[in-house]
Design goal:
Length: 237
Amino acid sequence: MLNCIAVDDESLALDLLEDNINKIPFLKLVKRCKNAFDAIEVLQNGQIDLIFLDIQMPGITGVQFLHSLKTKPMVIFVTAYKQYALEGFELDVVDYLLKPIDFERFLKAVNKASELFTLRNKPQVSEEPLVDKISAIFVNADYSLVKIKVSEITYIEGLKDYIKIYTSTSSKPIVTRMTMKAIEEKLPTPDCYRVHKSFIVSLDKIESIRNLKIKIGNAQIPISESYSEGFFKSIGQ
């Protein structure tokens, strides 16, 4: 069960949100909030897992409100304005719904939230490292949680605050807002190894290595000096 609040300055919008929320068995509406100040009070008094948040509100906008939170619940933006979609992506919201909301689209968004909540709160049954048991990872891309099989990853390229994940099943990389350190922590180290500040490679996808360059398909991936010793040890050289 996800405890949620709906934040919107329009009563009709709150009515529609409440009606949709009440149709979903795993959602519990804790409170309707007319502004960000009401929402802050609710967050201080109890555990909220998900916020349905309008953007254009008087006083404090939804974006300003979200920026102000030290600990952020999952957020689904609900707005009539398309131009905030990029900012929503940068704030790592679960989804971005445009008014008027189609129920099927609403259901898709809350299912994403439920899946993400389950992933974040899945209990660990063992204190042993789970590295060898990881078969897939999930990343946020195009306002969705995208599942990527580790066995399909060929290599990963870092570009400032974004990364490109190349796979054997798609001609286009999956682009997500994440640091190289963050994706490195998600990946099983025996299968994927960082060879450069901007590159992680899948060891079983390497075709050849020559002059400190790794060939994977058409890509030539450099091996930096700072990573070379550990990399070559990992492949028994």
